[in-house]
Specification:
InterPro entries: AAA+_ATPase, ABC_transporter-like_ATP-bd, ABC_transporter-like_CS, FeS-cluster_ATPase_SufC, P-loop_NTPase. This protein is an alpha/beta fold. The protein has nine helices and twelve strands. Helix content is 36%, strand content 27%.
Length: 261
């Protein structure tokens, strides 16, 4: 799918989305619209559907859409394969990045980048040209070149895995990046490096969705909108000060919210 959209059109539209896994309803009518240049934060208790939403947008096969639509760049992607979604510009940063023994980080990044470039009708990069590009991007996340020769995420610390995810994002240049608890397990220094990398990569043509429990990531990256999820629904949307209120009052404060329509 190639975009023919205007800059004023939304990148992502989730409309009344309901989904289940193993016949268990998880999402129960989620609607979310992301325009170019916007940063959205999604917050909520464990098990409320935040990660499920991210996986369904990315095309995870374990979930069944039972109602509603996902539109990316104006086209319905409900039935689009995960690989095609990734190539077209949807990026998902995992809460727990997996290790891939025997596959060098450099080769993994090169193949992924060239798949994206091919989709965009750009010339694929040979090994030498790609090494120059990836060395430039390493500066964004302050990673040593030694990480390129190691197997993907194998033996990486939690912070190194998250920085490697942001490196992938920098190389792939997605239209929308969904970062699922990127701050999870990070110390203060690693959090600041990851947040700085995200800010350097974000631009007026890209949308970002941050899924998080805590205010500390949002201290580094100020969102345009904050959405509170509960029981598979977005029950409240506000600006960045809503996250501050959640930090102060906790999620029990949200128990009396009525789902916004």
């Amino acid at each position: 799918m190639q975009s023919k959209m205007n800059e004023s059109d939304p990148i992502l539209e989730v409309k009344n989305l309901s989904a289940s896994t193993d016949n268990l309803p998880i999402l129960k009518g989620v609607s979310l619209t992301v325009y170019p240049g916007e940063i959205h934060a999604i917050m909520g208790r464990n098990g409320c559907g935040k990660s499920t939403l991210s996986k369904i947008i990315a095309g995870h096969p374990s979930y069944n859409i039972t109602n509603g639509d996902i539109k990316f760049l104006g086209e319905n992607i409900n039935s689009l394969e995960p690989e095609a979604r990734s190539q077209s510009g949807i990026f998902l940063g995992f809460q727990y990045p997996i290790e891939i023994p025997g596959v060098s980080n450099l080769e993994f990044l090169r193949v992924s980048t060239n798949a994206r470039r091919k989709f965009l009708n750009k010339e694929e990069l040979d090994t030498f040209d790609f090494e120059e590009l990836v060395k430039e991007k390493l500066e964004i996340v302050k990673m040593d070149q030694a990480f390129l020769s190691r197997s993907v995420n194998q033996g990486f610390s939690g912070g190194e895995k998250k920085r490697n995810e942001i490196l992938q994002m920098a190389l792939l240049e997605p239209k929308i990046a969904i970062l699922d608890e990127t701050d999870s397990g990070l110390d203060i220094d690693a959090l600041r490096i990851v947040a700085s990398g995200i800010k350097k990569i974000s631009n007026a043509q890209t949308g970002i969705i941050l899924i998080t429990h805590y205010q500390r990531l949002l201290d580094e990256i100020k969102p345009n909108y904050v959405h509170v999820m509960s029981d598979g629904q977005i029950i409240k949307t506000g600006e960045s000060d809503l996250a501050l209120e959640l930090e102060k009052k906790g999620y029990e404060w949200t128990d009396n919210f009525i789902k916004e329509t």
